[in-house]
Amino acid sequence: MYRFKYLIFGLFVSGAFAVDLAAHRIGVWAIESTQDMSRWVIIHNLESATTTGLYHIEVIGRKHGNAVWQVERLVHHMAVTEKALKASIKEPLEKGGVYPESFNNAFAAWQQENNGKGGSICDVSVVDCM
């Protein structure tokens, strides 16, 4: 009986990793919300990430009840592995983009860390790395 439960759990968990990030060309995904805020990630390098496995994202949020333009940048840039990103996303979104200047500045700073080799990389989940 226990083996059957583990088999079902294993199939459920492996299904979560079957998400094809590249298939959602917009690159905007909902992540875990808080009690008062919806949150999502914007993938800025979707095309190159499909080969490198390293995604450069920003995390955006909007308090429940606020107008659509009242968004907050929660993380300007985060480098995240595919495994960590897939562990974080809940559903694809059709809207949610913002102007990229803030991300671009934070990404450029990240690239300069460690003598130009880049900074830290999240490999657990986006929420855990925030």
UniProtKB/TrEMBL annotation:
<dbReference type="Pfam" id="PF16985">
    <property type="entry name" value="DUF5086"/>
</dbReference>
<dbReference type="InterPro" id="IPR044935">
    <property type="entry name" value="DUF5086_sf"/>
</dbReference>
<protein>
    <submittedName>
        <fullName>DUF5086 domain-containing protein</fullName>
    </submittedName>
</protein>
<dbReference type="InterPro" id="IPR031561">
    <property type="entry name" value="DUF5086"/>
</dbReference>
